Amino acid sequence: MGSIDVHTHFVPNGWPDLTARVGPGTWPSLRVDSEREAMILVGSSEFRRIEANCWDAGARLADMDRDGVDIQVISPTPVFFSYDQPGDRAAAVARIFNDLALEVCAPAPERLVPFAQVPLQDPDAACAEIDRAIESGHRGIEIGNHVGDRDLDDEGIVTVLQHCAAQGVPVFVHPWDMPESPRLDRWMARWLTGMPAETHLSIIAMILGGVFDRVPPSLRIAFAHGGGSFAFWLGRFENAWHRRPDLVGVSDLPPSAYLERFSVDSVVFDPAALHLLVETLGASQVMLGSDYPYPLGESPVGDVVARSDRLDDAERAAILHDNARRFLAL
């Protein structure tokens, strides 16, 4: 059985002028430099150079076959979320990119599984777009790990998560919009330190903000990049919950009691880190991910699982495909 990669991204090969379509804003656009290369712009600033494997299903499938991947979950690139815009404009942008995602996946619908973006800053509009996207062929949604200063325990975001639980829609949480500072702007430090910290913070918000106490266990939610630094610091978190109940012990149960309520991907690159995830969360809570097709992703896909010498056959199968089948309800 081939593997299932739950963490990949797409960029369509062009989209309508968003200023003309939805109104003024600092919108992303695409400068196509050749048949195989393009540049994402945000306003007039270059954001990221991309290649045709972002939009070309044939290129994706060839890479999947090379790495033994049967199925990819295709999620938005977070720069398109538009959480800083009014809800109606973000909803319009979400519809555009969600429809384009279906076109990217159309050549191989049994292998390319689209996840939608939603206007998370507007709960009613987000729930409406979830329903529309699922009806049109999406299998789940990807959300950013925060909206401005609102983390995942924000009332509006909890409403969206409750809707996903009720409708059986899986949720993939991706860090984005990391803080900037002179210290973080060197060496890609926002990606090297900010992404793990952002993801860790949002898992804490899910626990201490009481989200897992209020959202039914039927919610299928997974966090990118191995859950950030959460697994490494669970012991510190647990200790603080017991020793400072006035400030930290605000959830119904201690942090370790919620480990079966969420999953993480395997984008941690080192077998020792993967072993820590399995020992902390259990093999049932870890799914293969790669961050394909971006340069900081894992290649070949599944390399960290292949190099691990401490996984038994059942754990390896769980990480490579069994857990994702459950997450996606395949």
Describe the protein in words.
Keywords: Decarboxylase, Hydrolase, Lyase, Metal-binding, Zinc. Residues 4-329 form the Amidohydrolase-related domain. Monomer. Its EC number is 4.1.1.45. This protein is of the alpha/beta class and 330 residues long. It has one domain (3-328): Metal-dependent hydrolases (TIM Barrel, Alpha-Beta Barrel). Helix content is 40%, strand content 17%. Strand 7, helix 5 (155-167) and strand 8 (171-174) form a beta-alpha-beta unit. Helix 4 packs parallel to helix 5 (155-167). The longest helix has 20 residues, at 189-208.
Keywords:
330 residues, TIM Barrel, eight-stranded parallel beta sheet, three-stranded antiparallel beta sheet, 11 strands, 40% helix
Which residues form runs of ≥5 with pLDDT under 50? none
Q: H/E series, N to C?
A: EHEEEHEHEHEHEHHEHEHEHH
Helix fraction? 40-55%
**What kind of sheet is the major sheet?**
8 strands, parallel
CATH classification class: Alpha Beta
* Overall tally of structural domains: 1
Q: Give me the CATH architecture, please.
A: Alpha-Beta Barrel
Mean pLDDT: 95
- The total count of strands amounts to 11
What structural class do the secondary elements suggest? alpha/beta
The CATH topology annotation reads as TIM Barrel
Cα gyration radius (Å): 19 Å
CATH homologous superfamily (4th level) name:
Metal-dependent hydrolases
Number of helices: 11
Strand content: 15-25%
